[in-house]
Structures are given as structure tokens and as C-alpha cells.
Write a structure and sequence with these properties.
Blueprint: H1 5-12, E1 25-30, E2 37-45, E3 48-57, H2 60-73, H3 78-83, H4 86-92, H5 101-121, H6 127-130, H7 137-141
Antiparallel strand pairs: 1-2, 2-3
Helix pairs in contact: 1-2, 2-4, 2-5, 4-5
Bound molecules: FE2/S2 (inorganic) cluster.
FE2/S2 (inorganic) cluster binds next to helix 2 and helix 5.
Length: 142
């Protein structure tokens, strides 16, 4: 089978879809490879991400990885969220077909972008903390 059960589950019934009206940070990133875009909203209390939602014009794999990624960072600290790699998300989903790995980068980058926005709103330069938001290196490698 092409997609794991967990991918199918998260695609058919994605978690954390929507937007947060009074978000503390909003990120938006595009996937250079396919042109899909992803918007991510976070609520932050202290250094904990208390809520997260996403919206995407992305493919099924992007939806499944965002569902899983948002679930993994909900209740986590900003630091933990920044360390979440697309690889870890793909592993949590029991894998993705190689051609769809680039889709998982969209969620990772959207989280970083939302955290950057959060810091910018606090008057803090995000770049030393979050690093540069790239459209995915994996995509350029193909
Ligand atoms: Fe665009 Fe998957 S094909 S995110």
C-alpha cells in the first residue's frame, strides 16, 4: 500500500484544522516544488504552545503531516516545537512515499514561520532563535 494507515487516518480526519482568531503568531509558507501553501496559527502562554490550527491548499500528504505535526506541538514548549523535524513527523505517520516527503516540510516550515511571527510581535528578532525560513531544502535536492 502506498500510504500508511496513520497517513490515511490523518488525511481523512485531520486534526487542528481551522484558524485562531486571536492568534499570537501566524505563519504562512509555500512549497517551492508544488506551489501549495500552508497557514499556521499558534496561541502561546509563557513559552508553551497552548493551541495550534492550520489551513492549507495542499495535497493529502501535506494535510496528514500538518495534522500530526500540530498534534505533536500542542502543549509543547516553543523550544520543543522548533526541534520538531519533518522526519520525526513522517516517522510518527509510519512513513510517506519518497515522492511525498517534500510535502511534510510544509508543516515544519509553517510552525517555524508562526513562531517567528510570535517573536516579531514581542519585539524580538526571531532569526537568531528560529533561523531562516527556507522553502524546503529537500525540494531543491530533487
Ligand atoms: Fe504540494 Fe504535497 S504536493 S504539499
Amino acid at each position: 500500500m502506498l500510504y500508511s494507515e496513520k497517513v490515511m487516518e490523518n488525511f481523512a480526519n485531520p486534526k487542528n484544522v481551522g484558524e485562531i482568531e486571536d492568534a499570537d503568531g501566524i505563519g504562512e509558507v509555500g512549497n517551492a516544488k508544488c506551489g501549495d501553501i500552508m497557514k499556521m496559527y499558534i496561541k502561546v502562554d509563557g513559552d508553551v504552545i497552548t493551541d495550534v490550527k492550520f489551513k492549507t491548499f495542499g495535497c493529502g500528504a501535506a494535510i496528514a503531516t500538518s495534522s500530526m505535526a500540530t498534534d505533536m506541538i500542542k502543549g509543547a514548549t516553543i523550544d520543543q516545537a522548533l526541534k520538531l523535524t519533518n522526519r520525526a513527523v513522517v516517522e510518527a505517520l509510519d512513513g510517506l512515499p519518497p515522492a511525498k516527503i517534500h510535502c511534510s516540510v510544509l508543516a515544519e516550515q509553517a510552525i517555524k514561520s508562526a513562531i517567528s511571527d510570535y517573536y516579531t510581535r514581542q519585539g524580538i528578532d526571531p532569526e537568531p532563535i528560529v533561523g531562516k525560513i527556507n522553502d524546503c531544502e529537500a525540494c531543491h535536492a530533487h
